[in-house]
Amino acid sequence: MKSSLVFLALCSFWAAPVFSQDDYTAQPKSDSLKHALANPEAVVKLTLDPYKTQDLDLEDMKHLPRQIGNFVNLRELRISCMEQLEELPVEIGQLRNLEKLIIQNGIDCTMNISVPESIGNLQNLTVLNLTASVFSREDGYREPGSTVKRSARVKKLPMALGNLQNLQELYLSENQISAIPPQIASLRNLKVLALDNNNLRVIPLFVGGMQSLQKLSLSFNHLHSLPENLGDLQNLKELNLSFNRLFTLPQGLSTIKGLRIIMGNNALSLPMQKAYRSQFPYAKFDFANQESEGGNEGG
Known about the structure:
Order of helices and strands: HHEHHEEEEEEEEEEHE
Number of helices: 5
Low-confidence stretches: 1-30, 137-146, 291-299
Largest sheet: 10 strands, parallel
Helix content: 10-25%
Shape: elongated
């Protein structure tokens, strides 16, 4: 009986910590930031979201504490719906073990932050998600079907973004970006680049030089052409061009075997779809929601 009680006590002891270096998937409790600051070296994953963690202090917080730089073992940081947050602290660059930085708005959230140049110090970062959180349009913007007007503050991505040589996934969707930031050209190991739902009209030539790209997502923009050198992306597996203007694909894409090209809702008639398939025999086309024989037709 005594040994059983000792065993149960030990189980309770090891289950008590909110964060564990051995449990990368551990989720913080409602007062996650408070607990994390009390024991920063134990934190490996931290979520800051007033709606998910019920931490009311986060809702009105304009600046994260500088002590966030003490989370030396942090591997994943998620920030969402902190409406008043103005920027990431410079100390974010001290998180040398950080692998995933996800700053993403939820439904009807208007978080709009600045990212410091110190982000370039995060050499272990493999995933950077800034979806709908670095809003760059000068005037306010309202998402379709939403009653919330996005903030009008203009945010620019740091030039040091190009220093993240181990970055594999970059998500910049829903920020009303009108030009792809040139510093992205330096991300030679990038495999996924998502730029959906922006104001892009031109894709720069340097994108065709990003040889590691496997997925390029450009849906919901205003594109009518693509650079011919996209055909140099021989590792490309998926190209999403849905909800853009009608345009001619560069012939260079015809040399990429197994490439999936998504062109749903681009007003393509059945003869146009057949012409694309004939011109690019190695590609698998997805013309979902278009006029096609038998409805949704794949490659």
